[in-house]
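Inputs:
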Amino acid sequence: MDTLVLFTLNATWQIAALALMALGLALVFGLLRIMNMAHGEFVMLGAYAPVLAAQLGLPALAAVPICLMMVGLTAWLVERLVVRHLYARMFDSLLATWALSILMRKGAELVFGRQFRNVASPLDGVTQIGAIGYPSYRLAVIALVLAGGLGLWLWYRRSATGLRLKAMVDNPALAQAVGINTARLSAMAFVSGCLMAGLAGMLLAPTLSISPGMGLDALIRSFFALIVGGLGSLEGLALGASVIGGLQSGLSAAFTQTAGYLGVLSLAILFLWRYPDGLYRRR
Amino acid sequence: MGSIVGVNLALLAALLLVPVLGGAFFAWQIGLFLIYGIAAQGVGFAWGRGGFLPLGNALFFGLGAYSAAAVLRVTDGALLVNLLAMLITALACGALAFGLAVLLFRGRIGSGPGFSLVTLALVLIAGQIAETTPALTGGFNGLSGYAPLAGLDPFGAFYYVIVALVMLVSCGFLLIDRLPAGLILRGLVAQEGRLELLGFALHRVKGWAFAVSAFVTSLAGALYASHQGIVTPQAIGFALSAELVIWAAVGGRMSPLGPLLGAVVIGWASATLRDTVAWWEVAVAAVFLLVILFLPGGAMDLVNRALHRLGLGPRPKALPPLAAPASRASTATGALELSDVGLSAGTVTILDGLSLRAAPQGVLCVIGPNGAGKTTMLNAITGRMPTQKGVVSLGGRRLTGRAPHQMLAQGIARKMQVPTVFAGLTVAQNLQLAMLAGRLNWRDALRPAPLRWQGDTLAALLDDPDVPLAAAWLKSAEHLPQGHRQLLELALTLAPDPRLVLLDEPAAGMSPAETQIMVRLIRAYQQRSGAAVLIIEHDMALVEALASEVAVLHQGRVLAQGTLAVIRADPQVTAVYAGGHK
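Outputs:
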């Protein structure tokens, strides 16, 4: 019984963390049709925010403005200089963001060094659930992901900006014709997507080992979650994160981490081959 | 062939001078980057010629290296056994790559990101396995303590083995460029959609390109094992994969020699500067990004442009044409029949139980208001869009459920509404590709002769004084004016001698005089071949001149079918066109 509760908690944690990490990628792909290969590097950049805050002797909450500044500025520059010219050019944007990811990774190696780092969790305690003690920080992140996801879903459905975004996704030329500033909206969407990635990195930082190369894993698992769930919707993202996160934690617990990875990869190949639209399809 | 020999002799001379001028240790250093260069050539081939980006080619490099090391250890470096083992491993890598590419590219056109990310994931997993299974790979310490291939000294004679493989691979890639296989790959990058209409299975073409890439990369890995004397997880890791891509891009992925140049120059400079200049790797990454954005052809593009300006560029020689074999498309017979075909996208019904019959000979014109489902009907016939109900058949053979690339073999060719030609290729190359369509079998892809194939249909078109294609022979198709592009696409459509020609607004964007020419050419083909032609058109002058029968489409159904006079007299048709109530 206790092992079952623990496994459920762990799986929930994996799924929430994956959904959080994949959100930025889903946003950028869903709204701009750009596969942002540098997504993982924005996660990495965000994860360095608490590292910097700790190094500077600032309180844990100072990581939030540091993260927003660092990631936001980088994303804004990248949008201005590179991505802006590549909207709707799928393969070119794939290449350019891939090159960008290498540049960001090498830049991080130069600035932060190659070594692995850890940061202390801002919430140290353990919460008792029945006979099981589970780290409070993880529970808080799970709650935050649930609340944030629901909020975003409602906002996208109800708000005027959500409507403009939907118009842009549906038909960029027409959206421009009816007076929507698609250039600004696209820039906003890209920067927000990167900020989501950065915030995910910041929130997950206490549970990961942080290094310049950590972005690859984030990118691949996020992408697989999107492939399985279906590109371009929040519901699909939740579904995909559940399947991929659940499968990986299940296989890793039963066998080895490599087996978990292989299982996830095989599933992704199966989906790309047989069901390229993913599980969740909008009617 | 003149320039191939020249380029290769120059390359060979440069490679042989390295140990003479730089000494044995320098040659050993360069040897490593030549090995990496071969692997980068593999990446460049997939990327520049296949049009997709493999991010995990170190997988094949590592498989080649680990298996070579294992065999060398057991056999003490015996020459023949090891060469055989290298070849078998490389073939296995090719087969793995072929299977993977076919699976991933069959799912949907444009699954580019999917392919790249799956290859990336594969190499990450391979790296993880190499690190965590010491029994198989020696773990972090790697495999070492084996004799090199044939006991050759890595600091001496082994350099010439590397040179031999460099020459073999470079010659091979330069040759492929001049064979039908190379032309098909250029067509793939220039315009996938048209290549598919010409009957080539895109996923299989990409599969072959990736297989060649993996084969070559694996051979390079096998030499690496002898050259280094140790194989560690580094040889199969992500870092090497990324560097292969950078070298291919900066050197020039479009040219067979570009990646080699990139690997030797950047790789060697990196090895020398990496430890002393802290920002070196950042600078290389920045150069990579700039090349991607501003110089897609890489350094070789600059070299080629300079050669061209000096008048040293390749000069295409016109060889006399050869008679082409009969096209597989020309043997089909019978009438096209659509019965009760239904197709909807989302909640919108586009074809609503459409039934239509086109006689086995003659011209059927399909007219109808915008949104009637005319183009969608062609998409349903050619398998481009899946139908939900009904059957499409030609001469009693079922077409429903077949893939678009199988249509040409069924005798069907299609001209698109927006002219779809191979934009980056010359008019001559466009027409060469069209002559391969429906005629090529796999052995022909590796013989030069099929590039000279000429058929009666194409010859008649080119001889026509009103068709200006012969005059634009070496011009790039993207620089043709709209009317000429329409004529070029007509030539691409008719060259395989199809029995059923589907033309989607062939006169769109043409002047009245050009429309006259188009009418004359279509009629000439129909009369000479006795084929069936189905035309979608709004231009009533064209319909009047060509149609032996007319069908009117309205809201996804056939409203009326008959001779033009009958259609004109039909009150329902008048109502639809004059805006009467429905």
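Remarks. The interface with chain B takes residues 35, 37, 82, 85, 90-91, 94-96, 98-100, 102-103, 105-107, 109-110, 216-217, 219-220, 223-224, 227, 256-258, 261-262, 265, 268-269, 272-274, 276, 283 of chain A (CB under 8 Å). Chain A has a mean pLDDT of 87.
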